Amino acid sequence: MELNCIGEMCPMPVIKTKKALQEMGENGAITVLVDNIEAIENIEKMVKDYTGCTYTTGESGENFTITITKGSGGLESNAKKESGSVVIISSDKMGKGSDELGETLLKMFIYSLTESDVLPNAIIFYNDGVKSTTSGSASIESLANLSEMGVDILSCGACLQYHDLTKSLEVGRVSNMYEISEILLNATNVITI
User: Has residue 11 got a pLDDT over 90?
Assistant: First the structure.
């Protein structure tokens, strides 16, 4: 089986490879074609977290390949699972620098959560972060999927009101700073984006 991920942005090559491995029978092989070494390194990290798989890497012209062989034993994660995590998103962009890149990074981060083996208990949006839960956001579908998976999606009501977005909320629910502080104080792990 061959999986062509040429031109795919991170983390799509990893996500597509993981899905292909999960859909594959107990034994088999898949060759993934990518156009950057970082994608190969990220796929290698993912494969190392699972038992029952071996891999080899190579180059094909300007592109790179990784061939993953799945033996008996299935695709089981070696990674430890955590619970009680809360993610805080305070901007409609991820990181500092290019706004366009920051918007893309946040969209891909939220999408990546839908594909993760471990889900946070809640995602809290405040300040400009509430723009991600309202009309026009590129992350609405991913956030709706996370909500269906049991992740509590909360947007600060004062922030929605400040940005005149209260009526534009499309996913999750309106919260307040008292509830947000209670959730954060009871969380076992808080991740701020």
Answer: no
How far is the C-alpha of 181 from the C-alpha of 192, rounded, in Å? Answer: 14
Secondary-structure percent of the chain, ordered helix, strand, coil, rounded to 5: 40, 25, 35
Question: Residue 53 and residue 125: Cα distance in Å, rounded?
Answer: 38
Nearest to 119 by CA among 155, 95, 93, 84: 84
How many other CB atoms are found less than 10 A from the CB of residue 193? 17
Asked if 20 contacts 1 with a C-beta cutoff of 8 angstroms, the reply is yes
Locate the DSSP E strands across 10-169. 28-34, 50-51, 53-60, 63-70, 76-77, 85-89, 122-125, 152-156
Neighbour-count burial of 128, counting CB atoms closer than 10 A to its CB (0-12 exposed, 13-18 middle, 19+ buried): middle
- The highest-level CATH class for domain 81-192 is alpha beta
Residue where the block lists tokens 């534009």: 168
Options 3.30.110.40, 3.90.1150.10, 3.40.630.30, 3.40.47.10; CATH of 2-70: 3.30.110.40
CATH 3.30.110.40 in the chain is located at 2-70
**Most confident of the following: 39-53, 59-73, 119-133:** 119-133
pLDDT at 75: 57
pTM of the model: 0.71
